[in-house]
Specification:
It is a single chain. By secondary structure, the chain is an alpha/beta fold. It contains 22 helices and 21 strands. The chain has a seven-stranded mixed sheet, sandwiched between helices. Strands 3-2-1-4-5 form a five-stranded mixed sheet, with helices on both faces. It binds fe (ii) ion. Fe (ii) ion (FE2) is lined by residues 188, 192, 211, 214, 345-346, 374.
């Protein structure tokens, strides 16, 4: 049975072609349209999926979509508005002004310098009138409740309009392809639950989904057992950890949908104790569940962002997210007796939260679905509707996108008038270039599915130089507070990281952080964050032999089994998809070398290599 899984059209529209529980092809539309987080029907990726697999539209048995019809979604959205009203009027609040004054007194004096910030205690700079408004609208009762309710109603209105718009677009486009009669819709969190469970290869697992919003919910707990899913609990919107994190991301001046990772990076510099009590006072925590008051009121985090250091604000939100997520997981592990936990949903892109869940004594293992955001939902539904029954294989690869022939690559190189060579030992040549301090981009094989570059669309560099996090990010037009992530030879993993047991499958896809060993901190300082963690990709030879060979050759030269692996793209652009994207990013980014297919290209205008 063949299913075309289409992820929600509102953001990260993605196509997955799944046959009997096996993913044949999966890729996000943004890679083809070159519009980050593409919204709208994924026509180009669908075309690429059909071309790559040779499947004709007529052979597709089911089109699986992870949202209900818009009228049903509208009812769930209106229920959420009623819940916001109920909770904001019944929740017994602590005196916020007193808690904030106590928090003011906990702000440390600091003289450390943090790359990307003007000073360690930098706050968001706003004029006095704005600051007064934020305080009144966000942190003063009863105005804050009124503004929270107003934001909730506005969100609901917009969300219903969007559901209607995407519902109509989906039906129109499927109609053109003659596939409308095969459309099967489902509740959103089923798709997150399905992708994490079926890809884990586990016989029995506790399934935890956490996201911003989906079909009236922002999370769920299920049990997966022998190929079947059973829902145990729902986390109702508006009590959304995703929304909570989006509001602080926005209030810290970042894009709420794209830059949560910057807040995770920033959090490691701050002191969570400054504001955690303030944040937790807005939660009602119950066994296995929780609620958040005035969660849609963005002026609350706006107020905090102008009053407290950015790093302490980030640290508190990160800490509170971890505390609440751990409490939930701990309860449900104990309730079900299942210590193998699988995670999915946009919030589980938070690699540090995933580490904290993995570290729980009651948790035996953690698997995070590699495309954990809504881009993975089409695959989840594809698995669900075609699953043949029983237990599957653990997900082997995320190299599920398009690939390009040598002839196509050569043609693009010629068009760009680039001189290239075809080395006999390309991995050895790349390793030698990296050893001499060059930055090398690699374009090879099938494109990665999901947000991470895993070697086939990656920029590589040695991990000895911690300054790389400034100068290379600058060259690529990025600002990051988390260091680049390392790729590490599977066999050498224990030399580099602590606490891998039970999370090694996840670590093949860069979805979780680990504490680094002293050896790693000493030899790969560029890949270790200020809190001593890193987010590795553990690479096994059989999963990507040529990529493995690059790291192996570098290991022979340097005795270091790690390289920095960052995504091959320019500022705010999607990761490169085609040879022409790769050549453009290589030239624009002033990257020293491009390994593309079997060819190697030195940059025609080289920048001085850095050796350290
Ligand atoms: Fe979602």
């Amino acid at each position: 049975m063949k299913a075309l899984g289409i992820s929600p059209l509102d953001k990260d529209a993605t196509v997955s072609l799944v046959e009997d529980g096996r993913v044949l092809f999966a890729a996000g539309e943004e890679r083809f349209s070159r519009r980050k987080h593409h919204a709208g029907f994924p026509s180009r990726s669908l075309q690429a999926a059909l071309e790559a697999t040779g499947v004709a539209p007529g052979e597709i048995d089911v089109v699986a979509y992870p949202f209900l019809a818009w009228e049903s979604e509208a009812k769930l959205i209106n229920n959420a508005v009623a819940e916001e009203k109920r909770f904001s009027t019944t929740f017994s609040r602590k005196k916020l002004s007193k808690l904030l004054e106590q928090a003011d007194r906990r702000i440390p004096n600091r003289d450390l310098s943090i790359p990307g910030l003007l000073s360690a205690n930098q706050r968001m700079a706003k004029g006095p009138l704005k600051r007064l408004f934020y305080r009144l609208a966000g942190a003063t009762q009863p105005l804050s409740t009124w503004f929270g309710m107003r934001a909730m109603r506005q969100w609901a209105k917009d969300a219903i309009a969007f559901h209607k718009k995407w519902h109509e677009e989906l039906e129109t486009e499927l109609g053109k392809l003659g596939l409308l009669d095969r459309l099967r819709r489902s509740e959103h969190h089923l798709s997150h639950a399905a992708n994490s469970y079926f890809a884990s290869g586990l016989e029995r697992a506790l399934i935890v989904t956490i996201d911003g919003y989906g079909s009236g919910l922002c999370g769920s707990i299920s049990v997966g057992e022998h190929g079947k899913l059973k829902r145990l609990h729902n986390f109702e919107f508006p009590h959304s950890l995703g929304t909570l994190y989006e509001t602080v991301t926005s209030s810290l001046g970042f894009h709420p949908d794209r830059h949560a990772g910057k807040v995770v990076g920033l959090a490691a510099y701050g002191d969570p104790d400054v504001l955690s009590e303030v944040l937790l006072s807005r939660f009602e925590q119950r066994p296995g569940d929780y609620s958040i008051v005035e969660n849609q009121n963005i002026y609350f985090s706006r107020h905090l962002s102008t009053r407290f250091p950015m790093i302490d604000l980030a640290a508190a939100y990160q800490h509170v997210l971890e505390v609440v997520a751990r409490n939930v997981v701990e309860y449900w592990v104990s309730n079900t007796g299942i210590g193998d936990v699988v995670l999915s949903g946009g919030v589980t892109a938070n690699v540090k939260m995933n580490q904290r869940i993995h570290e729980l004594d009651c948790v035996d293992s953690v698997f995070v679905y590699p495309n954990m955001g809504d881009g993975g939902c089409g695959t989840g539904m594809g698995y669900y509707v075609t699953w043949p029954g029983g237990v599957g294989e653990p997900m082997q690869t995320a190299y599920l996108g398009p690939q390009f022939s040598e002839a196509e690559i050569q043609s693009e190189l010629s068009k760009a008038n680039l001189e290239y060579q075809r080395p006999k030992d390309l991995p050895g040549m790349i390793a030698a270039q990296l050893m001499s301090g060059k930055v090398v981009a690699r374009f090879a094989g099938r494109m990665e599915y999901g947000p991470r570059a895993l070697g086939n669309r990656s920029i590589l560099y040695h991990a000895r130089d911690p300054e790389v996090n400034q100068w290379l990010n600058q060259r690529l037009g990025r600002t990051e507070f988390m260091p680049f992530a390392p790729v590490t030879l599977w066999e050498e993993r224990h030399r580099c990281y602590h606490g891998l047991d039970g999370a090694e499958h996840s670590a093949e896809f860069m979805t979780i952080t680990f504490d680094c060993t002293d050896w790693m901190k000493q030899h790969c300082p560029a890949a270790v964050h200020v809190d001593g963690t890193a987010r590795p990709q553990l690479i096994r030879r059989e999963k990507n032999p040529e990529y493995y060979a690059i790291v192996e050759e570098f290991y022979k030269l340097s005795e270091v089994p790690c390289l920095i692996n960052t995504s091959f793209n320019m500022h705010e652009e999607p990761i490169v998809c085609s040879p022409s994207d790769a050549i453009r990013a290589f030239l624009d980014g002033r990257i020293d070398g491009l390994a593309i297919g079997p060819f190697y290209v030195a940059h025609p205008e080289p920048v001085r290599a850095r050796v350290s």
